[in-house]
Amino acid sequence: MNRTLLIARREYVAYAKTVGFWLSLLAFPLFAVLGGGIPLLIRSAEPIKAVAVIEEGPATTGLAAAVRASLQSDLDRQNERLREAAEKGQAGAGRAVASISGPKIRLVAAPPAIADATGPARDAAIKAALDKAAPKDRRLDAVVFLNRVDGKPAAQVWTARATDNDVSSFVRTALRDARRTELLTAAGVAPAVAQEVQTFRPEVKAFSPNAASGGEVSMRDRIPSFIGLGVGFLLWSLVITGASILLNSVMEEKSNKILEVLLSSASATEILTGKVLGVALLTLTVMGVWGGIGTFSLLSASPETAAAIGQVLLHDGLIFYFIAYMVGGYLMYAVLFAAIGAFCETPRDAQTLMGPIMMILVVPILVMQMALTSPDAPVVKVLSWIPFFTPFLMSARAPSDPPLVEVILTLVGMFATAALMVWIAGRAFRAGALSDVKLSWKTFGRAITGRT
Amino acid sequence: MAALTLDGVNKSYGDFDAVRDLSFQVEKGSICGFLGPNGAGKTSTLRMILGLQPATAGRIEILGADDGRKVRDRIGFLPEERGLYKKMTPVEAISFFGALKGLPVAEGKKRAKAMLEQQGLGAAQKKKMKELSKGMAQKVQLIASVVHQPEFVILDEPFSGLDPMNQQGLEAMIRDLAANGATVLFSTHVMQHAERLCDKVVLLARGRKAFEGTVDQARATSPRFLDLEGAITAQAAAALPGVAGVETLSDVDGVRRLKIALSPGAGGQETLKTAFLNGLDVRGFALKETTLHDAFIGLTGDHPDQLAVPAETAR
């Protein structure tokens, strides 16, 4: 095995053996599952509440029916979502969404002990029905009294738990709809028209000549932009995590006096390349595992979206542009961080130069989001030409088909800068590894020009 | 046949000349001590020999190559400041550095185990480097630097930080390396090791070569000393044959301790005989052999431990 690969393997194994690596490998998917799954589980496991609705007096006639109609409307909408999801082959995702968004209320007949009683006797009957100790078949979760205040629909909601707002929210929405229908009817609008106004949801379709269909814009047309932005962020994470690992690794070897031994066994270029490669493989492992889990989840939940993403990546060789930007971007920053590490023995030593570099790295994060909506905005285009920003911003812009000449020239600029950085970093690394002087622009400059 | 040749080598750091016009040779299969006080330019020279730093001027040839980097697989190097990966075991560390020098990993592990056993570190094989004592770690690092059986071994201050037992063990290892045909160049400012081990010494002072030759030749550069004690005056001692100089070390009620520097070639026997024949009141005497330490002081004008140059410029 050649020296570069040996160093890369050692670098990889050294980190892969640590607990921190496995924690970071598993933490993200675990938190994704916990963050998304637990609320879903809680919501879907929530019991359906038994609610009794009572109209108080003749003036309230029809309000209970309005509440029932509102509940039925919610159920119809939930069924519609399930049907649409099943048609798209996304039954799993549809069920998940439906389990969260569906109403968790069941209207039951009011017990006579409550409906026929008044005053303290009625209050006692309500408390008895809401009590946990009540027999299950006679126990209620909420009792709603519908009335009118100043002629407008109103309600008193009794719930078993003081903090339960679900029933109140549902009743509030139902009564608001009922009031709207009442007002429209009073204004001479036919009840059927009022109902239509109530349930109307406009269908707005977007069209663009750049859409895949040549007209109507679909989710498939939006996927490339999201992928570009995602790749930009992924590269940013790769640079931040990978370069930080490299910086710490070199710094540790410098402080442990290992670099000089290494330099007597391998060239500075071999050491630098081996380290950069080892850490790149390490971060790619992490991202590969995350990507694998993500792909598997997407294929299970929405195979259509997964297929669309695959098509987008293969369309016009987009994936190769992404790979090129990733390689160039990672190389530029990784060798720079490694060279800085060769001059430092403690994190404090590195802070002086890390600050400006981190400030530079914030710029693409801000501009990338702009590239999602306006990929050809002048500020995005101009910043894309700066080699240190090219990999992030061009990744975000690539799906919007920027001019080919721009793509080629920015790639050339980026790789030329990456080659320059490798050369500079190689010299600085060798000088820094053998030097006891503190890192400063002066010592860095002397190292690069070979005046050490 | 020379395994190493330095010819008019210079190394400057900015305005500071760390090494000036250095020329010497090391014969194949010999042990050469590279001596000099701290900051004399030893580490800079060793790094230039290895090709880790370029020489400002001059020519270096090692194992027939004009750049140490071209023959790095045939060289073993132990740096002055030592360190190995703390989380590796000794076997892993030795085989890794052996592999970097072209030794197959499996063979490296096999040799590492055997060499560790040989050095009494068999029980430490499976421990992490961070769990080893400084002496043990230093032995492991030395093994790591020679596991690939190099033709040329460069050791930068190999004895520093070791207890006497480990120093003795290290001396034995260096002798073994030379016995097996390797050329050894080691730097030190502790003269006793050089005196016991070296076929040849090169003495460096303030970046310049102060001496090159055998240990005996080095000793010969410095006079032998005769210590006399008795009611003798410095003038009377100075009149004795073979005396080059006299220094009074103490004088208590007319009983003096005199340090007499003998002339080159003088053995001291004639001086003592004449002193007794002349009736001088000699109550005690000691004839002192010249050590390399004495030669060092004589050649450099400095104590080996004292000639500090700021670390930054010494690199």
Task: Note down, in words, how this protein is organized.
The complex is a heterodimer of chains A (452) and B (315). With 452 residues, chain A is mostly helical. Chain A has helices at 3-16, 19-45, 63-87, 91-101, 112-115, 119-130, 166-186, 191-199, 219-255, 259-265, 268-301, 303-314, 318-343, 347-373, 378-384, 390-397, 404-433, 441-448; strands spanning 49-55, 105-108, 142-149, 152-159. Chain A has a 4-stranded mixed sheet with strand order 2-1-3-4, covered by helices on one side. Chain B is of the alpha/beta class and 315 residues long. Chain B is built from 11 helices and 13 strands. Chain B has helices at residues 42-50, 90-100, 105-118, 134-146, 164-179, 191-197, 215-220, 234-238, 269-277, 292-300, 311-314, and strands at 2-13, 16-27, 31-35, 57-62, 75-78, 152-156, 183-188, 200-205, 208-213, 225-230, 243-252, 255-262, 282-288. Chain B has a 6-stranded mixed sheet, sandwiched between helices. In chain B, a hairpin with a 2-residue loop joins strand 8 and strand 9. In chain B, 45% of the residues are buried. Mean pLDDT of chain B is 87; it is low at 303-315. The interface between A and B is medium-sized, with 27 and 31 residues. Chain B: Pfam families: ABC_tran. Chain B: Residues 4-231 form the ABC transporter domain. Chain B: Keywords: ATP-binding, Nodulation, Nucleotide-binding, Transport. Chain B: This is ATP-binding cassette domain-containing protein. Chain B: Belongs to the ABC transporter superfamily.
